[in-house]
Design goal:
The protein is α/β, with parallel strands linked by helices. The protein is built from twelve helices and eight strands. The protein has an eight-stranded mixed sheet, sandwiched between helices. Strand 1, helix 1 and strand 2 form a beta-alpha-beta unit. The longest helix has 29 residues. One of its GO terms (molecular function) is oxidoreductase activity. It comes from Stutzerimonas stutzeri.
Length: about 300
């Protein structure tokens, strides 16, 4: 598969990194993000595109035209709609790579939406935060075209691995993992905000470190976990709603997943109620945030 250009839908954290690293290799990257339609956000996206050397488009349809590969990197709540919109402009010979964190059933519905266009569909699951390793972030792939795409992407510096020919298996792996990972973030947020209220956080963290000495409870881990909720809680809540659907479809009641939704979204809502955005909290300090929330 020759990859000299790509269409990218979603220009957030992950999308921006993919765009930058691919453009740096001489690949033409044409991008659309729905925030371009918001006057107060358009300027920052235009500046970002100029800095990274990518071309902004005014619609999903224009971003997907005449490129061999389209990568969808949007929020969980928008993933299926993006696939349906892209399907109206894509055609045979093109490939749609869906890296969004959604349930297997959502990926299968997105694949079905692309079928009439003749375009191919690859289920992709990003298995770690993108910023640290960038293109080397582990990505699992599934679908009939996954093997060829994996070879093409890995030649560009990606770290993809094919896990199934069926759509939904890669996504299921990610969804099950998210129960644990997003759950740990939510548990840490609830645990330490409560401990801070009682002045008990030092002893609680010392006890956690004694029980799990390799995890970093005596270092940066607590702040990192809570910062992920504070920065990305709304997007993570949408993902966890998809996780809950994944769990329910397996015949298991998603009690924990639904509670994680509330905690992830709840912290972001509480920060917004203070009139703040995540950037206003820099440098991030979970104790200071806990104190501000408690005083509100």
């Amino acid at each position: 598969m020759k990859l000299d250009s790509i269409g990218l839908i979603g220009f957030g954290e992950a999308g921006g990194i993919l765009a930058e690293d691919l453009a740096a290799q001489g690949i033409t990257v044409q991008v659309y993000d729905r925030l371009l339609d918001e006057p107060d956000r358009r300027g920052e996206l235009v500046a970002k595109a100029e800095r990274l050397g990518v071309r902004l488009c005014d619609s999903t349809a224009s971003a997907v035209q005449s490129v061999p590969l389209v990568i969808s990197a949007v929020t969980a709540g928008s993933a299926l709609d993006v696939a349906k919109t892209a399907a109206t402009a894509m055609q045979a010979g093109q490939l749609f790579m869906d890296i969004n964190s959604v349930a297997p059933a959502t990926k299968q519905a997105a694949s079905a939406a692309l079928e009439p266009s003749g375009a191919g569909y690859v289920d992709a699951a990003v298995m770690a935060p993108v910023p640290p390793k960038r293109l080397q972030t582990p990505i699992l792939l599934g679908g009939q075209e996954a093997v060829e795409l994996s070879a093409t992407l890995n030649a560009l510096g990606f770290a993809t691995r094919v896990v199934a020919e069926q759509i939904g298996v890669a996504s299921a792996i990610k969804m099950c993992r998210s129960v644990m990972i997003k759950g740990l973030e939510a548990l840490t947020t609830e645990c330490l905000n409560t401990a801070r209220h009682y002045g008990a956080e030092a002893e609680v963290l010392a006890s956690l470190h004694k029980s799990f000495p390799s995890m970093g409870w005596d270092g940066e881990l607590p702040s990192y976990l809570i910062s992920r909720v504070a920065e990305h809680g709304r997007r993570r809540a949408e993902e966890m709603e998809e996780v809950a659907e994944t769990v329910r479809a397996a015949g298991v009641e998603p009690h924990m997943s639904e509670a994680i939704v509330q905690t992830q979204r709840g912290l972001v809502d509480a920060i917004a109620a203070l009139g703040l955005r995540y950037d206003d909290l820099a440098p991030f300090d979970w104790q200071r945030l806990a104190d501000r929330l408690r005083q509100h």
